[in-house]
Amino acid sequence: MVCLQSRTIFGERVVDGPVGNLMIAISGTCVAVLIGMVWCDLPRLELRAEGIHLPGLRALDIPWEALAPGFPQRPTMRSWLLRLTVARLELLPVRMRRRPMLSLGWDTHPWLVAGAIRWYVEHPEDRVRIGTRAEHDRLVSMLRASTEAATPVA
User: Fold this and answer.
1) Are 72 and 85 contacting, i.e. CB atoms less than 8 angstroms apart?
2) CB of 28 within 8 A of CB of 35?
């Protein structure tokens, strides 16, 4: 016999037998579903030849043509959001039109994210190489050099 005891502010509570097992099973299932939902909807970002793809339960695609050249600007180091400057609002997904922002919850430096988006908005000829190791290395080294040139030396 399984006996589940818990202490609450109202006193001790004992749940045993099939009801206790059912409560444990339901609780475990709820936790697993919640973890799965959070895992699937973690902020993720994919740069593709067609534009920016945000996968997950509520996937979004932002075409490069929707974004204005010269943007986005570098966010602050503690920023959680990257504001997108839109050139063609009608090309944005409907639910992004009021607040065209991307979450910066990735393990990637926020300046790299902003710089990569800005580069591909301004250089459509480089988009076909997105996803290749050579393009990644070229972009990272180019953005690193521009960051070092813009960072004042103390």
Assistant:
1) yes
2) no
SS3 86: strand
Q: What is the 3-state secondary structure (H, E, C) of 43-69?
A: CCCEECCCEEEECCCCCEEEEHHHECC
Strand blocks (E) in the chain: 3-8, 11-16, 46-47, 51-54, 60-63, 81-83, 101-103
CA distance 46 to 130: 10
Between strands 101-103 and 81-83, the pairing is antiparallel
Cβ contact 4:11 at 8 Å: no
What are the tokens at 152?
């004042």
Nearest to 81 by CA among 98, 105, 64: 105
Whole-number Å distance between alpha carbons of 136 and 113: 12
Distance between CA atoms of residues 94 and 104, nearest Å? 20
Number of residues assigned to the chain: 154
For the segment 30-56, the average pLDDT, to the nearest whole number, is 77
Q: pLDDT digit string (tens) for 82-102?
A: 999 999 999 999 999 999 999
Neighbouring-strand partners of residue 6: 13
| Residue position matching structure tokens 């050579």 | 134
